[in-house]
Amino acid sequence: MIESQYCSNTSGARRRVCAVAAAALFATAGMMLPATSTLAQQPTKVKIGLMLPYSGTYAALGNAITNGFKLAVAESGGKLGGREIEYFTVDDESDPAKAPENANKLIKRDKVDVLIGTVHSGVALAMAKVARDNNTLLIIPNAGADEITGPLCAANIFRTSFSNWQPGYAMGKVAAEQKKKTAVTFTWKYAAGDESVGGFKEGFEQGGGKVIKELALPFPQVEFQSYLTEIASLKPDVVYVFFAGGGAVKFVKDYAAAGLKNSIPLVGAGFLTDGTLEAQGDSAQGLLTTLHYADGLSNPKDKGFRAAYSKAYKAEPDVYAVQGYDAAQLLNTGLAAVKGDVGKRGELVAAMEAAKIDSPRGPFTLSKAHNPVQDIYLRKVEGKENKVVSVAIKGLTDPARGCKL
Amino acid sequence: MDVYSFLIQLLNSVQYGLLLFLVASGLTLIFGIMGIINLAHGSFYMIGAYMAFSLASLTGSLFVAIVLGTALSVVLGVALEWALFSHLYKRDHLDQVLLTYGLILVFEELRSIIVGDDVHGVNVPDILNWSLPLTDTLSYPVYRLFMSAVCVVLAGLLYVLIRRTRLGMMIRAGASNREMVQSLGLNINLIYRLVFALGVALAAFAGMIAAPVSSVYPGMGTQVLIICFVVVVIGGIGSIWGALVAALLIGLADTFVKVLIPEAAGVTVYVLMAAILLWRPEGLFRRV
Amino acid sequence: MSRKRILFAVALALLASFPFTGATFYTELVTNVMILAIFAMSLDLLVGYTGLVSFGHAAFFGIGAYTLGLVAPKDAAVNLWLTLPAAMLAAGLAALVVGVFVVRTKGIYFIMVTLAFAQMFYFVFHDTKFGGGSDGISMNFKPVASIGGFTPFDLASATHSYYFVFAAMLLVFVFLRVLLRSTFGRALQGIHSNEHRMRSLGFPVYLYKLASFTLAGALAGLAGYLSAMQFGFVNPEIISWHQSGNVLLMLILGGLGRLYGGVVGAFAFVALQELYQSVTTHWQLLLGATIILLVIFLPGGLASVGGRFKRTLVGGADDE
Q: What distance in Å separates the CA atoms of residue B120 and residue B211, rounded to the nearest whole number?
């Protein structure tokens, strides 16, 4: 229709008319399309907005979180707090520039009762702002930005994952206990890296150690050679790093190839070896990391969770799936207390604050700033697993500096 | 920084610079000889890396994968030139920018559909999988030395091709005056097709040999593209020699600034570019 | 021609009355599209009329946005009438400085160098604490529009914001229209058509190009400011080269060298994006394919712009 004789004429005027007509057509079509909704509109369903990465580098994490969430819902009879669920999904593409728009789509266009998301901290910060402005309940199943349960904390914002500080601090303490005196830290120059390294530094220096140099490279670069040379010349007792995803794979391999694996011990936050062991192979064997989850945990909830997850999704669960699973559990606890009435926000929040979550990672509660108070495990890479060695710190609470809750 | 560290950092700079040169040489060839700005060049690098990953898993050998991959990328280059780029010779820069920008999007999504979004590692071939101990704490991976050697050899081959063969002469002539070359009876379309395929193959090859060292991940194409642009701008469009000098310069600046002034690491290359542009708006060297 | 005028009037009326449909979400959506329209029009001045293809225009959009982000305190609102000009000034200044380096280059160089400088700004905001790093800055209050105690409108209201942006868009349109019909504007188009001729006629071509670049940058800064005001949030990704690519795409969709092309293009782009996103998660494939097909099959490409200008010079029909 647009490619008719009329419109393929090269005259300026006609082409403009056609462009306008086409644009108007597209605009009408495009704007009237709501987000994907799995069920028809019914007033008795709780509307849950999932804003997660379903494309790009973090797609696997977005899917794991969603799977974990939906598994918990299924185990609860397909309902949360006795009410059925209606999902609205948006792919945030891990793009902070589009985050306010995407969050607005769910909150203002689809009018969700609860917002769940996301992985990338930059996107989560935008979501938190929009949630605060609109007083929408937000549960964060991954993004660890300290600020969200720090200066930006709010009554309607919860997190079921971790704060970047927690695993770092735990490893700092462990390193100090191992009698290491000097350390060099290395990470990407962004909030997650800074906060993780900050946590390590605090824990390490409290235990009598000293961080002699803090190296950082711009995110997401992965040219590590010159930094490895620098680390070798500094000769610290231990090196603490924060890298995730592709960067983690490359770093661990480069570290081993530079011969440093045998001369200077490497430790890191769990993301260094989570989801990356297949690619890292031998270079990661024996690495110690800290995280709030591990392989080989002995609690029955984890065993049950792993069996159910692999049966339902034909894949092994990871820490992201656990976080998504717990987000649903937390919401369930809250909704059960108000008998599904999302309008009773005060009581809902109070119930969630007081919740004790029976999680595959072990039981945890929420701090006043709404961040998990949880055990941080020390893990060692054996084969393709991060096997738990010991509990690095029991019941670690993020200091939530700047939170006024 | 002691002497040993300084020398090793120098080695790091050269190795990084040489790899950059390999990718940038394809870009500058396509610019200089065909007059086409190709934003999708980084995507060819990425395609090379992913091909190395897939083919190496399939055949069990990285070397075989590289040979196969290079052949495939030549075919890809020819096909792309015939289908899309040949339309661009008479078009202006904006059209080229937009078409190749669209191509980036297409390549990224196709990659996502075909191979997925996971990060992958490629194993260094066993005969090269060892390190040369340089100091008591630091060893240097031999594979990186191998990579640098390959880049140098390729640079030499390129030089010989462009400067010392009949084909090279035809290519240079075609760059100066397309119509004249045509009227002299040479098949300029074929020449352009070959040059484009060469450019694609160079980028893909760079992606393939770098794969064990850089790992294979979704954002890798875009990252390398921008730096390559800077290499070409500094070196001078169309100048292979310029690309080499510029790439080494960038390798040096980048490596040393990173550890000496970490805050300035990201902007170093651009400051360098701005400084050189002030001095020479057309880059360091002129045509080929 | 009158058909075109009618279309114009209808579109204007539609836009003017849109907020009365009620849905806040859609009002805000159209506001955002209008902000993009301003951004696109600013680039059209540079690309469509002066013939300078910049692939780094998002940098100035970002500087305008970050100006608001940086001056806004956590606990109070800033004044619109002070911060808006400040943002445009900052963006214009940055464009001037970058322009000094960049306008000396031509053709492919110009494209690459604008891209590279935009990347430099991206890294400055992304890697340093100066602009809040990769997490950006969020603002707790919208700017207040008061002049000496009198507040004509409240930007916290979606409807008021809508009309403010609508008015800004119209102002920019009219301003550019007038500018392009003046001697300065005609000189720019002359430079686009044949730079050597203009130089031999005695025009200081470098200065004219620089002025165009600076002005385009300042207007992009305006769009950026409005965007920051709308979202209450700035982040380095708004300076990414994807944004620079998208705004070029808007111009191609809407038509270069026709001011309202920026407006049409912005709407078309957002609509296309929404449409494709609803079809598949791999929507960028569709977008990329669309771009490629558009470039290959767009009849005449940019030739029609040159043809139109020639007709204007030689005489004949009005811009049509």
A: 9
B97 touches chain C (CB under 8 A): yes
What letter does residue C78 receive in the DSSP assignment?
Answer: P
How confident is the model over C159-212, as pLDDT tens digits?
888 999 999 999 999 999 999 999 999 999 998 888 889 889 888 999 999 999
Closest among A198, A179, A302, A190 to A240, alpha carbons compared: A198
| B273 close to C (CB below 8 A) | yes
Query: Are B141 and A257 in contact (CB < 8 Å)?
Result: yes
Phi then psi dihedrals of residue C260, to 5 deg: -70, -10
Q: For the ranges A116-130, A304-318, C226-240, C247-261, which has the lowest average pLDDT? A: C247-261
Confidence of residue B288 (pLDDT cuts 50, 70, 90): low
Q: Is B123 exposed, middle or buried (0-12, 13-18, 19+ CB in 10 A)?
A: middle
Query: Chain B contact for A264, CB < 8 A?
Result: yes
* Whole-number pLDDT of residue C17: 84
**Residue A225 forms contact with B (CB below 8 Å):** yes
- Please state, for a pLDDT cut of 70, what percent of chain A lies above it: 89
Q: How far lies C190's CA from each of B49, B124, C183, C206, in Å?
A: 46, 58, 10, 13
Would you call A384 an interface residue with chain B, using a CB distance cutoff of 8 Å?
no
Kindly determine whether residue A100 and residue C232, on different chains, have CB atoms separated by under 8 Å: yes
Radius of gyration of chain B (CA): 19
> From the list A9, A19, A122, which residue is nearest C135 (CB)?
A122
CA C81 vs CA A338, C84, C232: distances in Å: 47, 6, 17
For residue A397, the model assigns a pLDDT of: 93
Alpha-carbon distance C156 to B183, whole Å? 68
CA nearest B91: which of C303, C110, C45, C307? Answer: C303
pLDDT of the residue at C304: 44
Average pLDDT, chain B: 86
Q: Nearest to residue A203, comparing CAs of A366, A386, A392, A377?
A: A392
DSSP structure class, residue A101 = H
**Which chain C residue shows the shortest CA-CA distance from A34?**
C278
**ipTM of the modeled complex:** 0.83
**Could you say which residues from 271 to 310 on chain A have a Cβ atom under 8 Å away from some Cβ of chain C?**
none
The answer, for A97 touching chain C at a CB cutoff of 8 Å, is: yes
Specify the higher pLDDT residue, A3 or A113: A113
Q: Among A16, A37, A89, which would you mutate to test the C interface (most chain C Cβ atoms within 10 Å of its Cβ)? A: A16
Per-residue pLDDT, A38: 43
Per-residue pLDDT tens digits for B253-265: 988 888 888 777 7
Q: Which of A223, A251, A255, A260 to mutate to test the interface with B (most CBs of B within 10 A)?
A: A223
Whether residue B218 and residue A56 make contact (CB cut-off 8 A), yes or no, is yes
Measure the N-to-C terminal CA separation of chain A; round to a whole number of Å: 59
pLDDT, tens only, B198-222: 999 999 999 999 988 877 877 788 8
Which H or E run includes A55? none
Which among B16, B124, B265 has CB closest to A217? B265
- Within chain C, strands assigned E span 137-138, 233-234
Does residue A346 sit at the B interface (CB-CB below 8 Å)?
A: no
Q: Do A16 and C126 touch (CB under 8 A)?
A: no
Percent of chain A as helix, strand, coil, to the nearest 5: 45, 20, 35
Mean pLDDT (whole number) for A236-243: 95
Dihedral of the alpha carbons of A132, A137, A143, A146, in degrees to the nearest 10: 50
Mean pLDDT check: name the lowest of A54-63, A147-156, B149-158: A54-63
How far is C167 from chain B, CA to nearest CA, in Å? 30
Task: Tell me which chain B residues have a C-beta less than 8 angstroms from the C-beta of C113.
Answer: 233, 273, 277
